[in-house]
Design goal:
The chain folds into three domains: 158 residues, Globin-like; 110 residues, Alpha-Beta Plaits (2-Layer Sandwich), CATH 3.30.70; 83 residues, PucR C-terminal helix-turn-helix domain (Arc Repressor Mutant, subunit A). The protein contains 17 helices and six strands. Strands 1, 2, 3, 4, 5 and 6 form a six-stranded mixed beta sheet that branches. β2 and β3 form a beta hairpin. It comes from Saccharopolyspora griseoalba. Belongs to the CdaR family. Pfam families: GGDEF_2 (PF17853), HTH_30 (PF13556).
């Protein structure tokens, strides 16, 4: 609907029904929000956003802000045209999308979420009145309100994205990010060209890392974590790109294994995912892709701070590719152990990592050998099959279960 077109007159009775409905959804609840987020991040066009934990969380926050802005307006001025939402969360989301090289098509997340919100809103409306004529008018006006509101919001954010893109284009960041994107995607660009644009050598060893936090994280904390990684690795320099407001992409010109690093003082809510070391251009690319995979697993596991490597999460990442299959695997393999005392799962996993050596297991857990033996008996009672008969599958399932527990 164009802004010049007259908005329909809303009778007082219809306005009151809309106000009551908006008041009912002022606190939408976790289930409704989950439906909204799943719809918004679904579909092939949203894969790049859904796969990036920071972009996905930024989009969720923007969706909630948009929903609550519409609700608040219809409590205050029910049925009237809602101005576009340019909340801090929505603007931050638009900025993040641009910095990742995404265009305004990614704003379709708002439109995809509209269908989920509309289904819930209809349920509310059917409880507002028994008069078919009143119900028809409420649905007619709010359908126009929601669709117009989203159209206006998307258009306003599109303008914000264009302005942000113009700002980036005037600096070197856009060129460096575009160069890295070409390298990671395997596009035809020479090493000499890429090195000149990045100011970073692409020959020799490389270890890539993703440093990120919640969407509102202080960028200084990300820099502190990246610098801590650099110093712990003993590297002289790093290539760092701002992927979005809460994410840094980092490459160290060194072969780094997180397991061998000295402790790194991590700022609150900052996480680091590290790929395996590689060499030359192929290693630059593969280490970064592995770090991205590790980031996704770490985020799904709910780890709020710390550092983890691709080697640590590779198995879990493969098992989690199909969530339903992973759930069935856990249930089939662990049985009652899956929801038993976490200490029992820790004993079982340590025992398997120590290749069935009870003495070493007790030493690793700082407990008595007899205690380990007693707990292993209890573990066998809870498992569908004894541990000794299904060790490989149980070990894989326990790794997956431990990561899901964060």
């Amino acid at each position: 609907m164009r802004s010049s077109e007259p908005w329909p007159v809303v009778p007082p009775r219809i306005a009151e029904l809309i106000r009551r409905g908006a008041q009912e959804v002022a606190d939408p609840g976790e289930e409704w929000l989950q439906e909204l987020h799943e719809a918004a991040l679904s579909g092939p066009g949203m894969r790049a956003v859904a796969a990036d934990p920071v972009l996905a969380e930024s989009t969720r926050r923007a969706n909630v802000a948009n929903l609550l802005a519409w609700v608040a307006h219809n409590i205050d001025k029910p049925g009237t045209r809602v101005p576009p939402s340019l909340s801090p969360d929505s603007i931050a989301n638009a900025r993040d999308l641009v910095r990742r090289g995404l265009d305004a098509d990614a704003l379709d997340a708002f439109r995809k979420g509209q269908s989920a919100a509309w289904q819930r809103w209809m349920d509310v409306c059917f409880g507002l009145t028994d008069d078919p004529a009143e119900l028809h008018r409420v649905l007619e006006i709010t359908a126009l309100s929601i669709s117009t509101y989203l159209d206006d919001t998307v258009e306003a954010l599109r303008e914000q994205m264009n302005a942000e893109r113009d700002d980036l284009a005037r600096g070197s960041h856009a060129e460096r990010l575009a160069t890295v994107t070409l390298l990671v995607e395997g596009a035809p660009i020479t090493v000499r060209q890429a090195e000149a644009r990045l100011g970073h050598r692409l020959t020799g060893p490389h270890t890539a890392a993703i440093v990120w936090g919640p969407p509102d994280v202080d960028s200084a904390r990300l820099e502190d974590a990246a610098e801590g990684l650099l110093q712990a690795a003993g590297a002289e320099r790093r290539l760092t790109l701002v992927a979005n407001a809460a994410t840094l992409w980092v490459w160290l010109p060194a072969a780094v294994s997180p397991e061998d690093l000295p402790p790194i003082e991590m700022p609150d809510e900052v996480r680091i995912a590290v790929g395996r070391p590689g060499r030359d251009l192929a290693g630059f690319r593969s280490s970064h892709l592995e770090a991205l995979t590790a980031q996704q697993v770490i985020d799904r596991a709910g780890m709020r701070a710390g550092i983890a490597s691709y080697d640590e999460v590779q198995l879990v990442g493969m098992l989690e590719r199909d969530r339903k299959d992973a759930d069935a695997f856990l249930e089939r393999t662990l049985g009652e152990l899956a929801e038993a005392d976490p200490e029992l799962r820790r004993v079982a996993l340590t025992y398997l990592r120590e290749l069935g050596n009870v003495t070493r297991t007790a030493e690793r857990l700082y407990t008595h050998r007899n205690t380990v033996i007693r707990r292993l008996r209890r573990i066998d009672e809870l498992l569908p099959r004894p541990l000794a008969e299904n060790a490989v599958h149980v070990a894989a399932a326990l790794e997956l279960r431990s990561w899901r527990a964060g």
